[in-house]
Amino acid sequence: MPVLILREGTKESKGREAQRNNITAAKLIAEIVKTSLGPRGMDKMLVDNLGDVTITNDGATILKEMDVQHPAAKMMVEVAKSVDNEVGDGTTSSVVFAGALLEKAEELINKDVHPSVIVDGYNAAAEQALKLLEKIAVNVDVSDKDLLMKIARTSMDSKLVSDDSPLLGQIVVDATKQVAEKADDGLKVDLDNIKVEKKAGGSMHDTKLIKGIVLDKEVVHAGMPKRIEKAKIALINSALEIEKTEMSAEIRITDPHQMQMFLEEENRMLKAMVEKVKGSGANVLLCQKGIDDIAQHYLAKAGVIAVRRVKESDMTKMSRATGARIVNNLDDLTAKDLGSAELVEERKVETDKWVFIEGCRNPKAVTILVRGGSQRVVDEADRSLHDALMVIKDVLEKPAIVAGGGAPEAYIANELRHWSSSQEGRAQLAVQKFAEALDAIPLNLAENAGMDPIDTMTELRAKQSKGAKWTGVDARNTHVTDMYKQNVLEPLVVKQQIIKSATEVVCMILRIDDVIAANKSRMPAGPPGGGMGGMGGMGGMGME
Ligand code: ADP
Ligand code: MG
Prior knowledge:
The protein has helices spanning about 15-35, 60-65, 70-85, 90-110, 115-135, 145-155, 165-180, 255-280, 295-300, 310-320, 375-395, 405-420, 425-440, 440-450, 455-465, 490-510, and strands spanning about 10-15, 45, 55, 140, 180-185, 185-190, 195-200, 210, 215, 225-235, 285, 305, 325, 340-350, 350-360, 365-370, 400-405, 470-475, 480, 490, 515. By secondary structure, the chain is an alpha+beta fold. The strands form seven sheets. Strands 9, 10, 11, 12, 13, 14 and 15 form a seven-stranded mixed β-sheet that branches. Helix 4 (about 90-110) packs parallel to helix 16, helix 7 packs across helix 11 (about 375-395) and helix 8 (about 255-280) packs across helix 9. The two termini are about 35 Å apart. Residues about 525-544 have low confidence and may be disordered. Adenosine-5'-diphosphate binds near residues 404 and 405. Adenosine-5'-diphosphate binds next to helix 4, helix 6, helix 14 and strand 18.
């Protein structure tokens, strides 16, 4: 009699087979993204099941849009996601590196090295690698704008927008510095305070940093002014409407006069609300809720610009940009609650009308208005800006950098090879494989640039072993050179995160020796009402 412990249809793969399947699936993911690494990397075109097209070079985006099924492959997608969340850049590198680690691990497994030995070796190597990174990192002065520009441009170097990186880099550095705040230990940047609005049309040159907020909303009433200088701004999060009662009541009137009085009273109440706004001295009203037609009319008459149904997130940003306080109750509104801006203006952006609140004094929230030839271009520009904003945030918060172009990876690989001899037993092999996996970064940068991989790597290793630690692959000019001098600079934390996240997930994949997958396609069968035993799992919809 066989003993059944798993539901019928469950698939299980064990031992070597399970490991091999997982490694193959994860490696395939790395295979896909590796051609998009670096400045000469290619872009991917992804079409979703609705036919929407995304063109991108960003590792995290490629994987997010791919809708991966295999569980181990999904773990690779997680690496990219975690790097994206933590440091913003380096997503492609982390996946390429993780893929290389798995490939090297497979070679060892084929030679009968036990996965747990590999895991130990990899962990030891990663720890050492992080120490080495820390050792070569250069501490920098965050007030050096030139330097920040170089870092922002490096992150955009590999993107569609690289030609416009001088302008975009400037915008990114200015925006990030503007919203940075002093914390106990250095600076703190909350990127939520940088609003990125995008609109297809014009060209990338028209992309602008606005010292204030852009709202994708129109002014509510045609009779209102379209432009106010020296604006006094009120932010209100209650409605300028007559509230409907909670219960339904019926009022019988016997005389048309009563009806008239009713309407007049409503009118009077709305007018009183507008008077309060006027009384505070505000000439711009941004309301999170609705504004009644009659109130709009009175506001227009008073020469106030009003916008309604402003998003909560925009209200917060507006408050940070203009210094206004968000008022919950109109009765509380006073002149002290108002914010200020040089100019509030409704402008036409392509076919839409948007309200620009600009020229705020020392705003703690700003807007980047992204323009570009087509929707796909602005979308990709938006993603590249995100990477660039993140790297500047990284450096402002932790002012240490390394060069790029595979230089730190090559340096660490070299050092690890020497260091591996200090390790005992087979873990030594794993450390050596870890070093080889690091070489995947300069190697792929070279391959993507059409350079000869063998010549490049031998030259790189030779120069590195002579102690030129910033020697890397200059993919733009296709030669092996000092990347620090080439101004290809990256935050230390990005490189650290790549190593941490990739090692973590690879070790997790290597430790798996049993994959038990439930049969997803079939719902638990059974006569109606008889599903008492087999509920649970995702198919449990058999309620009566
Ligand atoms: P990721 O998603 O990992 O950031 P990218 O496609 O942005 O992937 O490529 C980043 C890699 O490209 C980094 O290793 C970086 O140092 C390198 N890189 C950027 N600019 C250059 C350059 N001009 N020459 C060589 N390598 C570069
Ligand atoms: Mg990048």
